[in-house]
């Protein structure tokens, strides 16, 4: 029992372990790619690096079919075009990103001094020492880098560095669209009063100095980057980076509840009602309107978890990498959650979440590897079950944040002058 206490009492030990874990996986991945028919490297990484090679030859990254990302990602991975071990450099960048994200988790947890070092390190290790997180980044997924940017936004907001928060938010939305949902909760959290209200009498206080800083910085960076990329790459940039995601149909490796319907639409090439063009409506209403208005004043980090969870659950495309989008916020929510307070409930939720994926993957295996037609009822029922499990867990999260916030009023992480005590 002494080892865990010593291990989690020293930040350098935890962070060194997280780095060594990723280094080991990088070397293992190189070996597996060379010796196994089943490759370790993610197919998306091959798309990224192909686009980087096009850029190195002074061509557009969109000359690579299926490249649906900002050109900045291809620019970042230019060294991968140099050959040899340089090909792995992008994975190293992504791995560094998710380690930095873990450090930011630790920094935010420790910021107000209410949480001890050891407990903060244990919670941060949910991300830092998570084999799923390390595996995804070292296979060549950029989610770890995105997590670093998103956690940078949260850190900058709670530190009161709103110009920086706005810059990072604008960059994050340019890099991948979904972080725009955090703008709503941050905007609402930056209220004038300290009592958690956004209403003053009959007038809604919409703008204040903090909100104006956030808006100006985020919009300036987002618009500036998009104008620059449009000048360099024209309409292909707009089509592949933004418009494509409104009509995207991806019925492979997709846990989404819309999966079977997307498959049927793709198979029939229907010209009528297209669910993929409207699936975002309930997703946006919940993630951008309902949850921020209900929870943002109570607990910003946990609100961002709930927003991300609902965004992923209701998204028309949902893959394992997307789970990292909300997993990075778990260390902020778990300390005051019923999932830890009631271990039976927590274990049940975790088991159902894992089994829901396993059921879907079993049906997917039969479809793709055995050639069995499992779309109906197999994949359809598995998708519905996983969706139901996620909605149940989401209900627990929202209930926990609402209850703990209203009962104890989550501490305001901004610096505020102490109020003089009133004599009785």
Automatic annotation (TrEMBL):
Transmembrane spans: 12-29, 67-86, 92-109, 144-164, 171-190, 278-296, 308-328, 340-360, 380-398
Region (Disordered): 404-424
Keywords of the record: Endoplasmic reticulum, Glycosyltransferase, GPI-anchor biosynthesis, Membrane, Transferase, Transmembrane, Transmembrane helix
Compositionally biased intervals (Basic and acidic residues): 412-424
Enzyme superclass (EC): transferase
GO molecular function, one term: alpha-1,4-mannosyltransferase activity
Membrane topology classification: Multi-pass membrane protein
Tree of life domain: Eukaryota
Family membership noted in the UniProt record: Belongs to the PIGM family.
Function: Mannosyltransferase involved in glycosylphosphatidylinositol-anchor biosynthesis. Transfers the first alpha-1,4-mannose to GlcN-acyl-PI during GPI precursor assembly. Required for cell wall integrity.
Protein's name according to its UniProt entry: GPI mannosyltransferase 1
């Amino acid at each position: 029992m002494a080892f865990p206490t010593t291990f989690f009492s020293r930040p350098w030990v935890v962070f060194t372990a997280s780095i060594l874990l990723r280094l080991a996986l990088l070397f293992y991945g190189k070996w597996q790619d060379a010796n196994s028919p089943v490759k370790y490297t993610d197919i998306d990484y091959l798309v990224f690096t192909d686009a980087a090679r096009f850029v190195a030859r002074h061509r557009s990254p969109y000359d690579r079919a299926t490249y649906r990302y900002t050109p900045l990602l291809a620019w970042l991975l230019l060294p991968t075009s140099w050959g040899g071990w340089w090909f792995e450099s992008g994975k190293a960048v992504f791995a560094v990103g998710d380690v930095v994200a873990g450090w930011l988790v630790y920094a935010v947890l420790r910021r107000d001094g209410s949480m001890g070092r050891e407990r903060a390190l244990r919670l941060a290790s949910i991300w830092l020492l998570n084999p799923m997180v390390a595996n995804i980044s070292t296979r060549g997924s950029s989610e770890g880098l995105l997590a670093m940017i998103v956690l940078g936004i949260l850190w900058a907001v709670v530190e009161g560095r709103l110009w920086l928060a706005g810059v990072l938010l604008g960059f994050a939305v340019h890099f991948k669209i979904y972080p725009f949902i955090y703008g709503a909760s941050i905007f609402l959290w930056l209220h004038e009063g300290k009592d958690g209200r956004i209403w003053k009498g009959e007038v809604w206080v919409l703008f204040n100095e903090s909100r104006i800083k956030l808006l100006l910085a985020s919009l300036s960076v987002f618009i500036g980057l998009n104008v620059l990329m449009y000048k360099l790459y024209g309409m292909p940039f707009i089509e592949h980076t933004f418009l494509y995601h409104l009509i995207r149909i991806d019925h492979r490796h997709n846990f989404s509840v819309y999966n079977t319907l997307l498959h049927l639409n793709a198979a029939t090439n229907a010209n009528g009602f297209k669910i993929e063009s409207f699936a975002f409506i309930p997703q946006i209403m919940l993630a951008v309107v309902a949850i921020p208005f209900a929870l943002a004043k109570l607990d910003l980090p946990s609100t961002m978890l709930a927003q991300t969870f609902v965004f992923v659950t209701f998204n028309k495309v949902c893959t394992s990498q997307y789970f990292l989008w909300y997993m990075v916020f778990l260390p902020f929510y778990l300390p005051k959650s019923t999932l830890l307070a009631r271990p039976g409930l927590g274990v049940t939720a975790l088991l159902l979440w894992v089994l829901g994926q396993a059921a879907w993957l079993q049906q997917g295996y039969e479809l793709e590897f055995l050639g069995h037609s499992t779309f109906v009822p197999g994949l359809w029922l598995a998708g519905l079950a996983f969706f139901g499990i996620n909605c149940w867990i989401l209900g627990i999260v929202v209930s926990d944040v609402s209850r703990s916030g209203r009962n104890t009023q989550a501490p305001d992480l901004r610096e505020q002058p102490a109020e003089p005590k009133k004599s009785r």
